[in-house]
Amino acid sequence: NLHKMTTKYKTVRSLYNDIGQNYHDNREKASNDVTELPTTLNLLGNIRDKKILDMGCGLGKHAREFIKRGGIVTGYDASEKMVKLAQEYCHGKGSFTRSTHETASYEPDSFDICNASFSINYSKDLGVIFSNVHSWLKQEGIFTFSIPHPIWLQTRSENMDYSKPHKIWIKMSSYDVEIFNY
Fold first, then answer.
1. Which pLDDT value is given to residue 152?
2. Considering only CA atoms, which of 179, 178, 176, 128 is closest in space to residue 25?
3. How many CB atoms lie within 10 A of CB 20?
4. Strands in the chain per DSSP E
5. If you placed Cys at 89, which of 30, 60, 103, 174 could pair as Cys (CB 3.0 to 4.6 Å)?
6. Burial class for 56, CB neighbours closer than 10 Å (0-12, 13-18, 19+)
7. Is the pLDDT reported for residue 4 higher than 50?
8. Neighbours of 12 (CB within 10 A)
9. What digits encode the pLDDT tens for the residues 102-148?
């Protein structure tokens, strides 16, 4: 079964276009909303009138909270399905497009905050992400990001090996799906 999954999805786009609805339908089972999201909001403090880029916006959970707190949100996701769900979840507020960390393009000094919640681990080259963020952020801008804890990864992946960079497959039982990360 794991081998079938590893050959089925070649890109984050195809993965989340396929599992997006399941991910959305089972989101209430995720712990991120009571752990990672509140921590991110606490770190950022007052975001009223701040221009925020939600990188890999997914369902729009972070974007919606940023908007509620007065942030001006732009978001992108690799999956058209996730972009559509984010637009719906944010009730048409914010601006969302389909893009990846590698293909997204914004003017330099466009954002006060860039946020990547559990999304940079879908990219092979972190250097591209950090270079882009450095360009997109205004001086004194803030970059918040989160990644899965290594113990969490190791307990869910058969091919976890910290000695070399590689693609791993992770069973997400709360969503009943398998995803990949680097």
1. 56
2. 176
3. 20
4. 51-55, 72-77, 95-98, 111-117, 137-146, 168-172, 177-181
5. 60
6. buried
7. no
8. 21
9. 999 999 999 999 999 989 988 888 899 999 999 999 999 999 999 87
